[in-house]
Amino acid sequence: MKNGSVTDSGEAGRGGPKMRSSTSFSRSESVREQQQSCSRVLFVSKRRFTGVHQVSLSNSDKTGTEMYLQNAHHQTCPQDLRAVLKELAVLKEQIKVLQKENREQEENLETQKTETYELKQQLEEQEENLETQKTETNELKQQLEEQEENLERQKRELETQKTETYELKQQLEEQEENLETQKTETNELKQQLEEQEGKLERQKRELERQKTETYKLKQQLEEQEENLETQKTETNELKQQLEEQEENLETQKTETNELKQQLEEQEENLERQKRELETQKTETYELKQQLEGRVWDGFPQKRKLGRQQTETYVLKQQLEEQKEKVERQKAEIIQLKKKLQVKQLAFSASLLDQGRGNTGPYNSQTTLIFKRVVTNIGNAYNPYTGIFTAPVRGVYHFVWRIFGHGNIGAAAVLFRNEEHIFIVSEQQTSGGVSASNGASLLLEVGDQVSVRLWANTRIHDNEYHHTTFSGHLVFTM
Q1: Where is pLDDT greater, at 25 or 430?
Q2: Residue 152: in which H helix or E strand, if any?
Q3: In the chain, what are the domain boundaries?
Q4: Distance of CA 359 to the CA centre of its chain
Q5: Which CATH class, in words, describes the domain spanning 345-476?
Q6: Nearest in space to 409 (alpha carbons), one of 349, 453, 370
Q7: What is the share, in percent, of the chain residues with pLDDT greater than 70?
Q8: How far is CA 217 from the centre of its chain?
Q9: Are 343 and 248 in contact (CB under 8 A)?
């Protein structure tokens, strides 16, 4: 029994430890399984958390999360899993908030990009404006440099003039000294020549008188030469105009004579026809009386009377036609006479009617009124306004001449209506000046031609009539 018990106890002892080891093994197995399941859950959570929201978390957040998961892995899974899941839910909410902020930041970034692009465009425009301003500044600098150069040149000229003026002053002082010396010598000579002074004075007076007379004669001679030249020019112009007018007049006379001859012939024919008509009327009246005084003698006299009546009617018609022709010819003659009168157009006038004087200067162009009219055939020139008005369409020729003196220029312009045609001008520092010009113009009916004084100039006229305005019709069109 001992052996049995011992055996049983030994077996029991052997079996006991085996049972404890199996129990502890099963417990360790269950713990390992739980830990593995927790590890898988944590791994999946970690992978899901870090993989899905990797873009939205910063490195520090990721590191903290991994450390938290690793710590949670070492803890007991059943106790902390709910807390981890709650924290994961909180982290998800934070991630959503961070994503929303991220979207807002992206929108702000887009807005900033747009504003940056607009600022770049504005900057480019400002750069372009700056380049333009630089160009304008360079141009202004160039102009300023040119003006400075001109100023320097003017300064140099001024210095030169000052130097010349100073030299002239010195020369003047020297001349004054020489003059004083000469005066002293002259006084000495006067004292020495007191005896001959009387004769010398008389000779001087005589010489002065002769000089004065010579000077006056020279002036008169110059004026006469100027007047002679002016008169020669005007005479030549008038001769040309007269020759042209004579030619036109001869042509018109020839045409008028031909028209008169035709009119006389037509009047003679008309008178002859009138006489024949009167004769026929007389014969017709006598025939009527004979017819009334006696009885009808037969058909021959009746036929004769019918023929005479027919002839009388034809003659009356011819007479009416002749009258109409005569009236038409009279109207044509009247029109030809009018044309003949219109063709005779010419005028010539000088600025002043009497005396002498200047005209101008004025601040603007002023129409000159030539008051002394020597010729105005056709009355197309108005001496009260100074304007020539064309009565017919044709070509006209105009000539104007001006005279001036002194240091103010003389200038006058020919105008057709408001159109500037030709100008004549002359200027010199002293003495008299004269100039002339001419133009042929095609004028319509009613066109106006005048001579206007140029602004800030002056002209002169006197009893010799230097300043003139002339014109005439060359031919009609």
Answers
A1: 430
A2: helix 77-192
A3: 19-172, 257-342, 345-476
A4: 32
A5: mainly beta
A6: 453
A7: 68
A8: 55
A9: yes
